[in-house]
C-alpha cells in the first residue's frame, strides 16, 4: 500500500512550495494548506503496518559443552528430542523445547542427513 493512499484527502507529503512558470517569471505556489511532516508519516501511518516483532533465541548455555565448538551440543539435543518423542509420543508439547534447541544449534544439512539415516535405520546415535 502506498503512503499517499493512506493520507487523508487534501494532504500531501511535500513540505513547502514548488515553482510554477508563468511567462518569464517564476511564482511560488503552495501545494496544500496542510502538510505532514516525515516523522508524523512514519510514526502514525507506517509503523502500524509493520510486520510483528519476532524474538529469536538460541539454546541456553549447557555446562556439559563449555567450548565454542557446539557440534556435540547439537547432536545431543537432536538425540534428546527424539528420545522425548519416543517416550511421550508424537503430539507431546513437552518435546518442543528440545526441537527449538537442536534447530537453532544444528545446520539444516545435518538435520536432513540424520532424518534420512533414522528412516533408513542407519543413524549412528542411540535413540
List keywords for this structure.
43% helix; 127 residues; elongated; Arc Repressor Mutant, subunit A; mainly alpha; single chain
Structural class: mainly alpha
User: Strand count, sense and closure of the main sheet?
Assistant: 2 strands, antiparallel
Query: What is the general shape?
Result: elongated
Which CATH top level class of the largest domain fits? Mainly Alpha
Summed up, the domain count is 2
Helix content: 40-55%
What share of residues are in beta strands?
5-15%
CATH topology call of the largest domain: Arc Repressor Mutant, subunit A
Number of helices: 5
Q: Which sequence of SSEs, written as H and E, runs from N to C?
A: HEEHHHH
Distance between the termini: 51 Å
Poorly predicted runs = 15-19, 26-33
CATH architecture verdict of the largest domain: Orthogonal Bundle
Q: Can you list the strand order of the major beta sheet?
A: 1-2
Subcellular location: Mitochondrion
InterPro entries: COX6B-like, CX6/COA6-like_sf, Cyt_c_oxidase_su6B
Keywords: Disulfide bond, Mitochondrion
Protein name: Cytochrome c oxidase subunit
What does this molecule look like?
The chain is mainly alpha-helical and 127 residues long. 43% of the residues lie in helices and 9% in strands. The chain has a two-stranded antiparallel sheet with strand order 1-2. Strand 1 and strand 2 form a beta hairpin. The longest helix has 18 residues. The chain is elongated. This is Cytochrome c oxidase subunit.
Tell me the layout of helices and strands.
Layout: H1 3-6, E1 17-22, E2 25-30, H2 38-46, H3 71-88, H4 96-105, H5 108-120
Antiparallel strand pairs: 1-2
